[in-house]
Amino acid sequence: MSNNVLILAERAGDKLALVSSELCGIGRKLADEKGGSLVALLLGGAGTHELAKGLIALGADKVLAAESDILDGYTNAAYLKVINAVLGEENPNILLVANTSMGRDVAPRLAFRHGASYAHDCTDLSIEDGMLAAIRPVHGGSAISHVRSKTDSLSIASTRAKALPLADIEEGREGEFMEIGVSVDADEIRMNFVEAKKVEAEGVRLEDAEIVVSGGRGLGGPENFEYLQDLAKVLKAAVGASRAAVDAGWVPTPMQVGQTGKIVSPNLYIAVGISGAMQHMVGAGPSKNIVAINTDAEAPIFQRARYGIVGDYKKVIPALTEKCKELMDS
Amino acid sequence: MDIIVCIKQVQDPDIPPRDFKVDEEKMDVIPPANVSPVINGFCENAVEAAINLMEEHGGKVTVMTMGDEKARDGLKKCLAMGCDEAVLLQDEAFEGSDAFAIARILAGAIQKLDSFDVILCGRLSSDWSYGTTALALAEALDLPSVSQLQKVEKTDSGLRCERALEDGVEVVEVSTPCLLTASNEINTPRLPSVKGILMASRKQIPVWGAADIGIDPASVGKEAATFEVTKFYKPVFDGNCEFIEGESLEEAAGALALRLREDKII
Questions:
Q1: A150: chain B residues, CB-CB within 8 Å
Q2: Could A101 and B260 be called an inter-chain contact, meaning their C-beta atoms sit closer than 8 Å?
Q3: Do B166 and A310 touch (CB under 8 A)?
Q4: Digits of tens for pLDDT over chain A (330 positions)?
Q5: Residue of A nearest to B222 (CA)
Q6: Is A171 helix (H, G, I), strand (E, B) or coil?
Q7: CA proximity to A110, closest of A90, A138, A139
Q8: Which chain A residues have a beta carbon less than 8 Å from that of B244?
Q9: I want to staple A119 with a disulfide (CB 3.0 to 4.6 A). Which of A36, A134, B60, B147 is the partner?
């Protein structure tokens, strides 16, 4: 057993995903506290070797890259096989993954197989008495749980997107780079990747938007999202929704902000007809400024808001849109 | 197609926030008075998906859970929805088990059942959000797994699964037997029919303990947990919302826009 920290980096198309940087940032910190090295692993299809080298500038001492056609599309079984082999070879003390559809899909199986502890969806990580300690929001964010690994062998954690700072970039930083062989036989993995379909929202991407206008059950129907779209157009904002609006079939799933949707961190989040259930605030909470418009003055969203208006959004939003347009034009 | 569904009962996540209380000393939630636990939402999606597959392709659905006597109500509801059989896993030794121990318990029980084609679970529980049990169970039974499903269809060689991603879908084909976890996009769970409730009330639910399923009590329960909770509390928010008012809502909206401009937010 080493004192090393291994992170499972991720690709986003032909770039490193932002979560890779978040993982490098916290991984570097933990490795320094443990007196070990930071090892980063990247898996994928063509181009993975080149991309992986970028992890050294983000703080990795050693980078392992697995590039193969069979890793081009994600399958649980093929990725597990490669990661299991790396865990056996590297013997890290800590493995960090991102709480993404890949990270959360491999971590529990890895943990069970290696007798490791696993803390899911952590917003902070540290070392306490030599053990991995984590902060986890639970009960949909209604409570916070601090946990500490009971094993001094492998501990695994997944980190929540946007909860941890990005790594500092140090151009020209030196580190070891290793290509690792992939021997995954298509017949042995009992599954095969067919295709991935990205659903691109029109206009500004939710995750990148500086301003998000979001609607919930209080809007009353799908047609009323037009009010939000008008405001969003003026503010160059993205439009989001609560799970209630998605479950009602008013808007598609990729617009969902919340625990099982997207986590956003805009400068301004305008919540319209959203009560502010904890599960929603998991996704909207990182926003720097929240404005709430709701008919119920007791709605929990107002406890998280900087500014609020109690009243009918059908009156508020058009007037807000008009005034904003005037201000933006001036 | 024979299917096993593993469910979890949770505290009703839709209780008003003021009724959500925690005991910081015991580091646990204080269940609200007069509110019954409910089947975890994603687990109910898993039950519905299992019944749909069974209705289309034949076979039977067995539902199981680990828990106290209240867990029996959850199983009854699943039977009323259309599951054929139910098993309750209950033993003092199980109390305080972490997700890995629960996976071992479920695996022990599943190995006692007849063969199966699919195990269905929910993708995450709304209470402790470990996100671990289902996939650890797949590892325990050495099954291929596909998580967070929004669609599943039978093919000649197995199942075609669509995973709901943050920004789209991923399509994967998997052979059976396998383990799948359901996301909320997959369906809207049915309400039990009156006939279903009557049929369910006549069904026996066997209770299996550690000895019945060959589980070493030392390998489960609180002592075997891989993590310990060191602190547990409700987050505090400042609640310093400034309410903007005016002669009319339109005026308030205008004032809000000006404030956002003054603050350089827009």
A1: 225-228
A2: no
A3: no
A4: 799 999 999 999 999 999 999 999 999 999 999 999 999 999 999 999 999 999 999 999 999 999 999 999 999 999 999 999 999 999 999 999 999 999 999 999 999 999 999 999 999 999 999 999 999 999 988 999 999 999 989 999 999 999 999 999 999 999 999 999 999 998 899 999 999 998 776 678 898 899 999 999 999 999 999 999 999 999 999 999 999 999 999 999 889 999 889 999 999 999 999 999 988 999 999 999 999 999 999 999 999 999 999 999 999 999 999 999 999 888
A5: A150
A6: coil
A7: A90
A8: 307-309
A9: A134
| A316/B130 touch (CB, cutoff 8 Å), yes or no | no
Same domain, B247 and B198: no
Which single residue is written with the structure tokens 């021997």? A183
CB of A12 within 8 Å of a chain B CB? The answer is no
CB distance from A136 to chain B under 8 Å?
A: yes
Phi, psi of A298 (to 5 degrees): -90, -5
Q: Which residues of A touch B241 (CB under 8 A)?
A: 292, 302-308
Q: Is residue B229 part of a domain?
A: no
Rounded distance between C-alpha atoms, residue A131 and residue A133, angstroms: 6
Contact A234, A328 (CB under 8 A): yes
Chain B: give the shortest CA distance to residue A12, in Å: 11
C-beta atoms of B249 and A316 within 8 A: yes
Same domain, B248 and B220: no
In a domain, B132, yes or no: yes
Closest CA in chain A for residue B18: A300
Residues A159, A210 share a domain = no
CB B150 within 8 A of CB B185: yes
In B15-34, the residues whose Cβ lies within 8 Å of chain A are 17, 20, 22, 27, 29
Q: Any idea which residue has 């826009």 for tokens?
A: B257
| DSSP state at residue A262 | B
Look up the domain containing A318 and give its range: 206-329
A135 and A232 part of one domain = no
Q: How many domains are contained in chain A?
A: 2
ipTM of model: 0.95
